[in-house]
Amino acid sequence: MNSHTQSAASAFLKPRKTPRQARSATTVEAIFDATIQVLLADGATRLTTTRVAERAGVSVGTLYQYFPHKQSLLFAVLKRHLEAVAQAVDSACQQHVGQSIDTISDGLAGAFLDAKTAHLDASRALYLVSSEMDTADLIDEISLRVYAAVAMTLASATDARFVDISAVAFMFSAALSGIVRVVLDREVDPAMLQTLRAELPVMCRAYLATAMRRAHSESSSK
Amino acid sequence: MNSHTQSAASAFLKPRKTPRQARSATTVEAIFDATIQVLLADGATRLTTTRVAERAGVSVGTLYQYFPHKQSLLFAVLKRHLEAVAQAVDSACQQHVGQSIDTISDGLAGAFLDAKTAHLDASRALYLVSSEMDTADLIDEISLRVYAAVAMTLASATDARFVDISAVAFMFSAALSGIVRVVLDREVDPAMLQTLRAELPVMCRAYLATAMRRAHSESSSK
DNA sequence: ACCTGAACACCGTTCAAGT
DNA sequence: ACCTGAACACCGTTCAAGT
Q1: C-alpha B151 chain-centroid distance
Q2: Largest CB tally within 10 Å, which of B15, B120, B194, B196?
Q3: Which of A167, A195, A205 sits opposite B170 (nearest CB)?
């Protein structure tokens, strides 16, 4: 299942070594925190490895003991965030398995938005640097994971059947991440966030309802 | 209308001077082309000002005569691309004013997808560097322009009325740019593109139809 | 095992000198 | 008006030396 997600680029970006002593585990944790702090305080342009090390209270050399290059550091921080979001979607999926399609739709849309807005600053900060590294494989992996969970849950709905569930799940998860990303990328206007929170579930429900209708008309015409 | 879109950051990123002679106009054009070529051939990481100048056949100093820094160069290239997309949406909007809501929906979704996929490589290349500069204002400006055109066209539909047209137009344009962005950000799998082309109009129509129904029930309950 | 920080290569940016 | 390219400051990355 994850055989082709572990490509060359992923391996290239992996941390250099895993901490085996309490001291170094603390060091890595400090570096992680420092990265987000510098990103939030000084912006993407002023995010330098020296500055991160300084803020973490270690020397640059120490940073490079755990991360082969700046990219891999940013990669690790982004990975942490995206996996938290994927985890939130997974939980919501398991929670709504076998329920009605509207309940599932509202549950997934809400869970996704909650996960993103819970760490709103981190989300926006990471969007800013996500292009400074080769994130294609990571994005693919997380997208696939979210997609699979969504497909499984939609298929379990008691009151709906879909002809092409893979296409529907693909669009559903693309809509969640895409729309949320576009809105959060802009200045965070509370009114926009409110509109998004109100309208995203509406759009999700509307799309699924149409996909269902197509399923019915197709099965009745056969 | 564009008074608050010309913020400090925008001005900061403006080109240093406008070419007044044929020779320098050619130079700027060569720099633009070289930027996209280097981006496509060498990737975002290897995009250096020296490399761009070299490829354009000029010296670095010449490049810095027209662009105060690397950011402003990337900014100008991105602006060119986004304005072409906005232009395509504008045209589609004018073309479909006063038609049915389904025709409008299909027309806008198709025009947006066409504009993005027409320069697919440039689109993806620019997504990759869009976070290396301060694009917030540019994105806001283009988003606002697309939003305004969409709102105007939706309001002109002969067979539909919306209670909160600003919310609907906001979500509609966010869906277009967000979903397309998320799909194009991933490896361009032809099957995915095909699914997107088939399902995006479906989702747009479904959302607008639901927004209309809400309009009707609200007006009939008053 | 883990940490330090001076040293090196490379990139963005400038500016005195050219046409 | 426009162009050149050596020079400078700064950042990513390394590695010999320390605990």
Answers
A1: 17
A2: B196
A3: A195
pLDDT at residue number B18: 63
> What residues does CATH 1.10.357 cover in chain B?
77-220
* pLDDT the model gives residue A6: 36
Q: Can you give the pTM of this predicted structure?
A: 0.85
State which H helix or E strand residue A41 sits in: helix A22-42
Helix (H, G, I), strand (E, B) or coil at B119: coil
Q: Do B179 and A179 touch (CB under 8 A)?
A: yes
The pLDDT tens digits for B6-63 are 344 456 667 766 665 666 778 999 999 999 999 988 888 889 999 999 999 999 999 9
> Please, how many CA atoms are within 13 Å of residue A39, restricted to the half-sphere of its CB?
21
- The CATH architecture assigned to A10-71 reads Orthogonal Bundle (1.10)
Protein CA A61 to sugar C1' C5 (Å): 8
CA atoms within 13 A on the CB side of B80: 15
Determine, for residues B195 and A139 on separate chains, whether the beta-carbon distance falls below 8 Å.
no
Q: 3-state SS of B35-72?
A: HHHHHHHHCCCCCCHHHHHHHHCCCHHHHHHHCCCHHH
Contact B188/A at CB under 8 A: no
Q: In which band, very low, low, confident or very high, does the pLDDT at A19 lie, cut at 50, 70 and 90? A: low
Contacts of A49 by beta carbon, 8 Å cutoff, 6+ apart:
A60, A63, A64, A70, A73
Give CA B78 to chain center in angstroms: 9
CATH class, range B77-220: mainly alpha
